[in-house]
Design brief:
The chain has 4 helices and no strands. It has helices at 17-21, 31-61, 68-97, 99-106. 1% of the residues are buried.
Length: 120
C-alpha cells in the first residue's frame, strides 16, 4: 500500500494521486513557455516585414532616417516593440472575453468579519 492511501489520524483516507489527477486547476511544466516562444517567433516574421516596408516611408518623411545606423537600430527594435504591443493587445482581449477569471485571480480574499467582544 502506498503511504497516501493509509488512513490519517482522523480516520479518513488521504486522496491518492489517481484521484487528484483530474482535478488539477493549474497547468504545470514548460508547455506555456514553449507555446509563448513559438507564437512570439512566428509573430516576429510579419513584424520584420512590416518594419522593412515602413523604412522607405520613413526615409521619405525625414532626412534623419537616411542614417544607416538609425535604420539598423529601427530594423532591430521595432519588431520587438510590435511584439510587446501584440502581447499586450492579446492580454486585453483575454481579459475582455473572460472577465470573471481575471477578476477572481486579481482580487484579494475578503477580510474576515470582526469578532464580537464579550461583555465584562
Amino acid at each position: 500500500m502506498a503511504a497516501s492511501n493509509l488512513p490519517s489520524s482522523s480516520g479518513r483516507r488521504e486522496p491518492s494521486f489517481r484521484r487528484l489527477k483530474g482535478k488539477r486547476e493549474q497547468r504545470g511544466g514548460s508547455g506555456h513557455l514553449v507555446w509563448t516562444t513559438i507564437v512570439s517567433c512566428l509573430l516576429l516574421a510579419p513584424n520584420f516585414g512590416i518594419v522593412l516596408m515602413a523604412i522607405p516611408l520613413l526615409r521619405a518623411f525625414s532626412e534623419w532616417f537616411e542614417s544607416p545606423r538609425l535604420t539598423q537600430t529601427l530594423i532591430f527594435t521595432l519588431p520587438i516593440g510590435l511584439l510587446f504591443f501584440e502581447w499586450w493587445v492579446f492580454d486585453r482581449v483575454v481579459d475582455w472575453v473572460w472577465p470573471e477569471q481575471s477578476e477572481q485571480s486579481a482580487q484579494p480574499a475578503p477580510p474576515a468579519p470582526p469578532r464580537a467582544r464579550k461583555p465584562q
